[in-house]
Specification:
Elements: E1 5-9, H1 11-20, H2 27-36, E2 41-45, H3 55-64, E3 68-73, H4 77-86, E4 90-93, H5 109-125, E5 129-134, H6 138-146, E6 151-155, H7 157-161, H8 164-183, E7 187-191, H9 199-203, E8 208-213, H10 215-224, H11 226-240, H12 253-256
Parallel strand pairs: 1-2, 1-8, 2-3, 3-4, 4-5, 5-6, 6-7, 7-8
Helix pairs in contact: 5-6, 10-11
Protein name: Pyridoxine 5'-phosphate synthase
InterPro entries: Aldolase_TIM, PyrdxlP_synth_PdxJ, Pyridoxine-5'_phos_synth
Family: Belongs to the PNP synthase family.
């Protein structure tokens, strides 16, 4: 089974910086540490209101951190133009509501296919691998293929928030979504709400090529440091793929889901 890429979202390093102003902590330095600790790429979401990551952060990341950059974005003219100038290796088109604290669900590609298709084409023409953040629904995934996307990122939020039988049902939906993505010829990624305690079943899906994890790792770094948190997540991903066995002391689901 192929190695699962870990893309670390550093948005909330910028959230902490912006809480008091100034330049510390620096999300670009966090990105460097993440790559050194075993991450395979960096994700940033440049929002309309610039509530965390700012334009200058993204430009510095592109110039100073040699890695796979995944640019999360709404499908607006401003963001498409920015991405085409930036030319990250990948972008992920997400729904964006001005008042939301975090992305709340997958994009309705069936509804917005006509407006999305030309934006996807522009991004692809700039040499960018275009993914779309969707629910693990076969019809939505098929629509991503029809408008020219190269990948989907499956929304794992409902899975992450559920427990017991409900979590198993959501995992089955993710499994079916990953199968649908492969059948459509799309690369399959996943993200939202993943932690030490819930990531392994998702990481074990053989169709998956990348997970994007941000808030949990940045929050967990308060307790154990960013390099240690990323190394620990990297070990769990590798173990789920059968590459390694995580060391003693990696708590199980109940303990880790209580961590901020």
């Amino acid at each position: 089974m192929q190695r699962l890429r870990l893309s670390v979202n550093v948005d909330h390093v910028a959230t902490l910086r912006n809480a008091r102003g100034g330049t510390f902590p620096d999300p670009v330095e966090a990105a460097r540490l993440a790559i050194e600790a075993g991450a395979d790429g960096i994700t940033v979401h440049l929002r309309e209101d610039r509530r965390h990551i700012r334009d200058a952060d993204v430009l510095r990341l592109r110039a100073e951190v040699p890695t796979r950059l995944n640019f999360e974005m709404a499908a607006t003219e401003e963001m498409v133009a920015f991405a085409c100038g930036l030319r990250p290796e990948a972008c992920c088109i997400v729904p964006e509501k001005r008042a939301e604290l975090t992305t709340e669900g997958g994009l309705d590609v069936l509804r917005f296919a006509e407006s999305l298709a030309p934006q996807v084409a522009r991004l692809a023409a700039a040499g960018i691998e275009v993914a779309i953040f969707v629910e693990p629904d076969a019809a939505q995934i098929a629509a991503c293929h029809l408008i020219g996307a190269a990948a989907v990122e499956l929304h794992t939020g409902a899975y992450a928030e559920a427990g017991g039988a409900a979590r198993e049902a959501h995992l089955a939906r993710l499994r079916n979504g990953a199968t649908a993505a492969r059948s459509a010829g799309l690369s399959c990624h996943a993200g939202h709400g993943l932690t030490y305690g819930n990531v392994s079943p998702v990481a074990a899906l053989p169709e998956l090529s990348e997970v994007s994890i941000g808030h949990f790792l940045i929050a967990q770094s308060v307790f154990e440091g960013l390099p240690a948190a990323i190394a620990r997540m990297r070990a769990l991903l590798d173990a789920a793929r059968g590459d390694t066995v995580p060391g003693d002391g990696v708590p199980g689901d109940a303990a880790e889901d209580a961590v901020p």
